[in-house]
């Protein structure tokens, strides 16, 4: 049935509009014929020809036509006879009269090939473009003729498969109007060829019989000669495959003979072609062998990665592949290798022809896409050689490159960085992979700069850690420091955009700073640990670490370092109130500096004291006074007037000690003001804070305190004498000062006492704090004890909420998996029932619970069980008979359609007979059981209506055998073939056919089964036969109301009934059962 919308559209058109539309359709059909002729000549000549709109002009010089004649008749048209084969003269000066020789050579080649002269165009039709449609018509006829001879590939029908612009169609319409001739009937070329050639059917029959007899003899040479017989009209024969042809044809002939033996009726009905292969079957087997061989060649070429061999195999005529381009060989190889690897996952079969065609189409698209990408890449490289960043960005934004997002605001960054990258390449141009990686990285850099400019820390963090940025050593914990440092770098440099190198340098700078801080923390931690454990070697190793940044570390001062660091730590613990207080790097540096200063001061003090002792020994008063005045000694109350007395007192003290005994020890011990002890060697003039081994102090040496006592005593006596001579007020002042000194001395002593007993103070504080915390804890415990009911209630509410949430999650899981739960329960119950049944059968004393479950079976006898089984069997037989009757009715309806077509001369008698044999072969096995039952009844078993229909068929066949067949009709016919259903495994599935008019473009298929998948294709029938089937379309009908279910019940016991059912034959998409 035609679409009403389409009919209304045509009814509204005026006569002029319909005429205009018809002319445009003619122009489009002629353009399609030109495209078909172009592709066929390209396949034959192996070279690219102009577009269909320019093909007519390219054919006028006859060069292409002469080359076509040389391709199939080289003796009639030698290559040297072709005038201007490279078309250089034609391109320089246009057409010349000698170009008509090329057209005549082409005509001679067609005469040599045997093409009927009715198709030949005149020389002026081509040279002067008087009738170019006749030339294209002749090329189509030549292609069909050569294809029948097996010399050329077939020409493909491209009507409706190629697209042309409105301008091209209008230009061709104007050209056809200029010709003023009627368009040739391209679709009647086959019939005209058949009438003109007048093939001898007897010769074909004799050649086919000779081939079958040669196959029976089994001689390859005889079979080859029979196949090469021109009267057999076999094409695409390969000499190297004759033995394979013989094997395949023998197997096909053997299968056909076996089938004929199974289906043969009376001996007088025997047909020669029931056992012999026909010409069409032989040609099909040859084509199958050729295709199989070419597919193997394709597979071998893929194994060896041989591009040339692959192109040669793909261009074989037997495959009939279209769109093969020589320059796309690498893409064909890669695509077919990928397709074969994909198919190898499922099967080991080679690629099919359809898969090859799809791969060729995909490869052509991929090759064109790669060429477009290469052109866009070339534009980018050219733009980078220039100085316009905006042009570079516009080239980068070309969609053919498939680059990441490009930001026009960062045009200078893209241009500058890509120029540097291009200059570093060896060939001076960027490749696709290099450009993709660079643009991806630069786009990420642009996002980072944009985040810095907008001061968006979140966007900056996301862009910085993005893998496409390519920035290494990014620590997620330092993102804020990265942001601050890069912002500072950007402001300090005065740049709008930071490059990738600048970003990486900033990240490395922050990481190094953090690393140094971390190393300093480790060093400080090591110092604190050494101080707490009093490990001098560990302390020395930690102080010498470069990360500490300490200078002038002397191993001789190690003890002083430990002492001062311990004091600093204790002081910090007292100030902060934290016993675990740690020293920082500043504290360590201050202590080391102080220790170095104290060491130098102590050394200078020892040198000064040694100088005093030496001067006293030498008994030089002036030298002794000068040495005593040294600032390192820090002597108080030193008076120059008492120099002689100083010398005498010190000399007396030294003499006394010498008399007591001189041990000649080189070591002396010096007590400093802070209470520390310094050891000094008198010979090498070096000191140490640690006591040397077997230390014995020098018994004669006078230390700084003794010198101070002597000086103080002498100065005091001298001062007292002077003071007694002065005023009394001065004496009072001196007493006051002395008392103040005593008080300060007592205070200092008290401070030293507190410092020495600081751990005890810390313990006291800790005990007090423990008491306070225990008191607070007891109060809290007392509060909870008083309010224990509220606490229990809160705990119960929380636990209830947790249990409820767990229950809801479990319930939601069961609802989502209810089908699996039901199946598990069914399996469990079935397993338990089997176990109990075995226990009932095999156990000597089964439990009472098991016996109660199977007690209802005692009411059923063996006869009841057999009757129930027989009932189920009869139900299955009824269902099978109903389905068979439905199928048989469909076959009979199709047979009626075939007979109707036969009566209207729409189909031949042979097709009807073939369908009848097919129907008989299909239903023979299914009817065997029924025929055994009905064989004794004969015609009486049929109803009256079926008996009348059988008699009418017999009379119709009798008339068809007597009446001559009329002339073939001129009206074409379209048949819609419906194969149902496609999921049936039988090779001869039921096929429905519906005839439609050639002027109808839509048709409705009614009375189909619900929820069934059909395979639909279209075939055109003419007086000369049927066309090849169209592309098969798969369609599935919607599900309707399902058929009634087969419902059964079974009594289990006194309180239980088992219900079971069967789904309908075509349930469709069931939503559930109730």
Automatic annotation (TrEMBL):
> GO BP, one example?
mitotic actomyosin contractile ring assembly actin filament organization
- The name of this protein is Ras GTPase-activating-like protein IQGAP3
Domain WW, chain residue ranges per copy:
661-694
Organism's domain of life? Eukaryota
- Gene Ontology MF annotations: actin filament binding; calmodulin binding; GTPase activator activity
Family annotation (Pfam families):
CH, IQ
Q: Where is the Calponin-homology (CH) domain?
A: 31-147
Kindly give the Gene3D superfamilies that the UniProt entry links to this protein: 1.20.5.190, Calponin-like domain (1.10.418.10), Immunoglobulins (2.60.40.10), Myosin, subunit A (4.10.270.10)
Q: To which species is this protein native? A: Oryzias melastigma
Question: Which GO CC terms are listed, alphabetically?
Answer: cell cortex; plasma membrane bounded cell projection
């Amino acid at each position: 049935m035609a679409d009403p919308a389409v009919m209304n559209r045509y009814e509204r058109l005026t006569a002029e509009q319909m005429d205009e539309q018809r002319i445009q359709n003619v122009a489009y059909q002629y353009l399609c014929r030109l495209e078909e002729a172009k592709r066929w000549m390209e396949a034959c000549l192996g070279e690219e020809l102009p577009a269909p709109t320019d093909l007519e002009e390219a054919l006028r010089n006859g060069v292409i036509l002469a080359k076509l004649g040389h391709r199939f008749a080289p003796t009639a048209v030698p290559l040297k006879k072709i005038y201007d084969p490279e078309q250089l003269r034609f391109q320089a000066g246009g057409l010349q009269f000698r170009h008509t020789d090329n057209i005549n050579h082409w005509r001679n080649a067609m005469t040599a090939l045997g093409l009927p002269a009715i198709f030949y165009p005149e020389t002026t039709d081509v040279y002067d473009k008087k009738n170019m449609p006749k030339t294209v018509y002749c090329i189509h006829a030549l292609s069909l003729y050569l294809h029948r001879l097996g010399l050329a590939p077939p020409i493909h029908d491209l009507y409706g498969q190629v697209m042309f612009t409105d301008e091209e169609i209008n230009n061709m319409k104007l050209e056809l109007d200029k010709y003023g001739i009627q368009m040739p009937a391209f679709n009647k070329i086959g019939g005209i060829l058949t009438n003109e050639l007048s093939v001898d059917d007897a010769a074909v029959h004799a050649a086919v019989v000779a081939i079958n007899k040669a196959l029976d003899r089994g001689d390859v040479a005889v079979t080859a000669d029979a196949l090469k017989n021109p009267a057999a009209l076999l094409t695409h024969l390969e000499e190297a495959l004759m033995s394979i042809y013989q094997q395949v044809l023998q197997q096909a002939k053997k299968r056909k003979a076996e089938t004929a033996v199974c289906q043969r009726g009376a001996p007088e009905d025997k047909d020669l072609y029931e056992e012999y292969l026909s010409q069409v079957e032989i040609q099909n087997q040859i084509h199958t062998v050729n295709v199989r061989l070419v597919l193997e060649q394709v597979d071998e070429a893929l194994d060896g990665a041989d591009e040339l061999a692959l192109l040669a195999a793909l261009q074989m005529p037997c495959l009939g592949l279209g769109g093969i381009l020589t320059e796309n060989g690498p893409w064909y190889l890669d695509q077919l290798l990928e397709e074969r690897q994909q198919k190898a996952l499922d099967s080991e079969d080679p690629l099919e022809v359809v898969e090859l065609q799809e791969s060729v189409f995909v490869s052509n698209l991929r090759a064109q896409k790669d060429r477009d990408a290469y052109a866009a890449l070339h534009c980018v490289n050219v733009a980078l050689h220039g100085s316009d960043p905006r042009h570079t960005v516009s080239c980068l934004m070309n969609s053919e490159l498939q680059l990441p997002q490009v930001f026009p605001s960062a045009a200078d960054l893209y241009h500058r960085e890509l120029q540097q990258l291009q200059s570093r390449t060896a060939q001076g141009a960027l490749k696709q992979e290099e450009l993709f990686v660079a643009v991806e990285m630069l786009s990420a850099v642009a996002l980072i700069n944009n985040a810095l400019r907008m001061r968006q820390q979140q966007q900056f963090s996301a862009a910085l850690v993005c893998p496409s940025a390519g920035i290494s050593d990014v620590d997620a914990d330092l993102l804020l420091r990265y942001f601050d440092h890069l912002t500072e770098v950007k402001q300090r440099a005065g740049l709008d955009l930071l490059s990738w190198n600048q970003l990486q340098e900033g990240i490395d700078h922050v990481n190094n700073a953090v690393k140094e801080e971390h190393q300093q923390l480790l060093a400080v931690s090591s110092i604190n640990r050494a101080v707490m454990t009093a490990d001098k070697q560990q302390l020395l190793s930690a102080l010498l670490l470069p990360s500490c940044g300490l200078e002038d570390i002397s191993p001789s001062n190690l003890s002083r370092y430990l002492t001062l660091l311990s004091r600093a730590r204790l002081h910090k613990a007292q100030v902060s109130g934290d016993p675990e207080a740690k020293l920082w790097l500043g504290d360590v540096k201050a202590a080391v500096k102080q220790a170095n200063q104290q060491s130098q001061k102590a050394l200078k003090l020892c040198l000064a004291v040694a100088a005093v002792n030496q001067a006293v020994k030498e008994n030089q008063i002036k030298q002794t006074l000068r040495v005593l005045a040294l600032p390192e000694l820090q002597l108080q109350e030193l008076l120059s007037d008492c120099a002689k007395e100083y010398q005498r007192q010190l000399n007396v003290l030294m003499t006394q000690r010498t008399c007591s005994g001189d041990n000649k020890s080189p070591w002396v011990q010096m007590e400093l003001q802070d209470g520390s002890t310094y050891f000094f060697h008198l010979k090498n003039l070096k000191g140490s804070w640690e006591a040397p081994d077997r230390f014995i102090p020098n018994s004669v040496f006078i230390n700084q305190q003794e010198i101070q006592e002597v000086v103080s005593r002498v100065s005091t006596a001298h001062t007292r004498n002077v003071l007694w001579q002065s005023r009394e007020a001065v004496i009072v002042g001196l007493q006051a000062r002395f008392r103040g000194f005593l008080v300060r001395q007592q205070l200092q002593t008290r401070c030293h006492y507190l410092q020495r007993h600081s751990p005890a103070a810390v313990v006291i504080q800790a005990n007090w704090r423990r008491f306070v915390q225990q008191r607070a804890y007891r109060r809290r415990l007392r509060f909870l004890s008083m309010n224990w009911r509220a606490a229990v209630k809160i705990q119960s509410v929380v636990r209830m909420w947790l249990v409820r949430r767990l229950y809801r999650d479990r319930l939601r899981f069961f609802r989502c998996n209810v089908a699996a739960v039901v199946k598990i329960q069914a399996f469990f119950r079935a397993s338990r029932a089997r176990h109990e049944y075995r226990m009932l059968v095999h156990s000597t004393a089964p439990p009472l619970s098991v016996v109660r479950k199977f007690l209802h079976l005692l009411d059923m006898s063996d006869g009841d069980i057999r009757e129930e089984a027989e009932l189920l069997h009869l139900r299955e037989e009824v269902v099978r008979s109903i389905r068979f009757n439905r199928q048989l009715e469909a076959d009979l309806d199709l047979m009626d359609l075939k007979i109707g077509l036969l009566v209207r001369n729409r189909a031949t008698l042979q097709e009807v007979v073939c369908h009848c044999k097919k129907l008989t072969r299909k239903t023979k096995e299914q009817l065997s059981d029924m025929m055994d039952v009905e064989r004794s009844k004969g015609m009486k078993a049929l109803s009256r209506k079926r008996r009348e229909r059988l008699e009418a068929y017999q009379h119709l066949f009798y008339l068809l055998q007597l009446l001559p067949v009329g002339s073939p009709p001129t009206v074409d016919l379209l048949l819609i073939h419906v194969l149902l259903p496609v999921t049936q495994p039988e090779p001869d599935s039921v096929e429905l056919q519906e005839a439609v008019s050639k002027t109808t473009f839509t048709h409705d298929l009614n009375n189909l089964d619900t929820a069934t998948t059909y395979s639909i294709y279209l075939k055109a029938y003419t007086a000369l036969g049927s066309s090849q089937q169209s592309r098969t379309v798969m369609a599935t009908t919607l599900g309707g109301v399902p058929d009634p279910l087969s419902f059964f019940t079974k009594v289990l016991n006194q309180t239980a009934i088992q219900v079971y059912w069967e789904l309908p034959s075509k349930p469709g998409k069931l939503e559930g059962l109730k």
